[in-house]
Specification:
The chain has six helices and six strands, in the order H-E-E-H-E-H-H-H-E-E-E-H. The protein has about 230 residues and is α/β, with parallel strands linked by helices. A six-stranded mixed beta sheet has the order 1-6-5-4-2-3. The longest helix has 28 residues. The chain starts with a helix and ends with a helix.
Length: about 230
């Protein structure tokens, strides 16, 4: 082995060690998110074993719509565990009460719900489901502070990508709880999850995504479950 080849191998090994160390630090940073949950209670709550709730996403806004996947995530987690609550799936509920809970016609206030319940079909269907609370989820995930760049190239000896990128994700959601029995808003739960995502590239890009929306879903579901149970 020539001296030049030995030097090249050492340089490559050194670069790989540095890249490995940098990736280890970034992996640690990428796993960090911050989640805040606030609760504002306006009335007493509690639910019986034969009663249920429905969780719906607000979609009347012109700039964004609450993602169906997030609403389903919250519903699935609220129904789990020893304190789990029976949750009517959003799509099933909306389809069965068409068109009263479509985005253009869904009630925006508890007073609107009271008027809507005067429709025999609506009141009967909600009674059949045993719905005690309607939960309206409103919010979105925003991305900001994008930095860095990555370049990729292909040559006779192969190809690869080099560079570094990062961005910040912020998931902000509110859940407003309506008591169907009293036509009153009994409280609001808010969750805000933030985290930094990274995309280092040493030959191959390795995305390290902050799971802010998953954390927001878990935090909101846990608090909502306790809230509805009256804990």
């Amino acid at each position: 082995m020539t001296t030049d080849n030995s030097r090249k191998i050492k340089r490559i090994r050194g670069a790989l060690l540095q890249a490995t160390g940098a990736l280890a630090i970034i992996f640690t940073l990428g796993a960090c998110t911050t989640t805040t949950v606030d609760e504002f209670r306006q009335g007493a709550t509690g639910i019986e074993s034969h009663e249920s709730i429905v969780i719906l996403g607000r979609r009347q806004g012109s700039t964004y719509e609450t993602r169906e996947e997030f609403v389903n995530c919250v519903g699935q987690r609220v129904s789990r565990g020893a304190a789990g609550i029976r949750v009517i799936p959003e799509k099933e509920f909306i389809d069965s009460l068409f068109p009263w809970f479509e985005p253009r016609t869904a009630p925006l206030r508890t007073a609107d719900l009271q008027v809507l319940m005067e429709e025999p079909l609506v009141s009967q269907k909600i009674a059949d489901y045993g719905i005690r609370y309607i939960v309206w989820v409103d919010g979105q995930t925003e991305t900001s502070n994008r930095m860095g760049s990555i370049s990729c190239a292909v040559g006779p000896g192969g190809g690869g990508c080099f560079g570094f990128g990062s961005w910040e994700d912020d998931s902000n959601f509110d859940a407003r709880v309506w008591d169907v029995s009293s036509f009153a808003s009994v409280g609001t739960i808010s969750t805000d999850a933030t985290g930094q995502s990274y995309l280092p590239a040493v030959v191959v890009p390795i995305p390290l995504i902050a799971r802010v929306e998953a954390n927001a879903c878990n935090s909101l579901a846990v608090q909502l479950q306790q809230f509805v149970n009256g804990d």
